[in-house]
Amino acid sequence: DTSGSSFRECIRKSPYLIKPNVEELSELTGEEINSEEDIVEAVCKLDPYHIEVIAVSMGKDGSILKMNDRFFRA
Question: Of 39, 46, 45, 66, which is closest to residue 54 (Cα–Cα)?
Fold first, then answer.
């Protein structure tokens, strides 16, 4: 579990899976996140890192999962 500069450094190694929360995703991408659409856009900005699974936790609102090019809502 990490965040901030450590998290940014880790994704440069193209891990198989990351699980940021909304705040961590916002910090990682530099994007303000106010909606599920914002989450999808921010996650797509991570495509250059070739991360196969990105699970964004939204607390009591569940999560959004990206596996390769497909998105799921739980």
Answer: 66
Contact 55, 62 (CB under 8 A): no
Query: What is the model's pLDDT at position 10?
Result: 87
pLDDT at 3 over 80: no
Task: Kindly provide the b/e burial profile for residues 18-39, where b requires at least 16 CB atoms within 10 angstroms of the residue's own CB.
Answer: bebebebbbbbbeeebeebebb
Task: Measure CA 29 to chain center.
Answer: 9
**Residues 26-61 pLDDT 10s:** 999 999 999 999 999 999 999 999 999 999 999 999
1, 8 Cβ separation under 8 angstroms: no
